[in-house]
Amino acid sequence: xxxxxxxxxxxxxxxxxxxxxxxxxxxxxxxxxxxxxxxxxxxxxxxxxxxxxxxxxxxxxxxxxxxxxxxxxxxxxxxxxxxxxxxxxxxxxxxxxxxxxxxxxxxxxxxxxxxxxxxxxxxxxxxxxxxxxxxxxxxxxxxxxxxxxxxxxxxxxxxxxx
Length: 162
Prior knowledge:
- The protein is of the alpha/beta class.
- The chain has a domain at 88-156: Chitinase A, domain 3 (Roll).
- It contains 4 helices and 7 strands.
- The protein has helices at 31-46, 53-72, 121-126, 153-156; strands at 27-29, 73-75, 88-94, 97-104, 115-117, 134-137, 140-151.
- Strands 5-4-3-7-6 form a 5-stranded mixed β-sheet. A two-stranded parallel sheet has the order 1-2.
- It is elongated and about 55 Å long.
- It comes from Sphingomonas morindae.
- This is GreA/GreB family elongation factor.
- GO terms for molecular function: translation elongation factor activity.
- InterPro entries: GreA/GreB_C_sf, Tscrpt_elong_fac_GreA/B_C.
- Residues 82-149 form the Transcription elongation factor GreA/GreB C-terminal domain.
């Protein structure tokens, strides 16, 4: 029989669903980040089973992603000294505008840019810098002026277990 008449079901013509991409490199986290990942896994594990197969597949893929992130999480060392590192808050000037942000792990970063993942281009430009240093960014030498660096205590508090 011709292949044209052998169609088993409609699913074979759907676009393939790929796994959620994992960021390259180590999965460095702060204690806060580890707790956020663990909470996300628990939330997905406790979610009621969806009746819709697409929703069930989406939840299952998300659960695989977050379980992998939890299993591969490595606690970043607590920053010592005054250099920008994971878990520090940095105040800096870029293009004449002063900003403050916290450098975090990938999964701790937020959309409003108060927390930025350590592999983001801006974070990479800041890492290792100290107050008074200048760093290149966006193809410009000394585009960033680091004004202040401090440990972001909110990232290093051990989560409360209840």
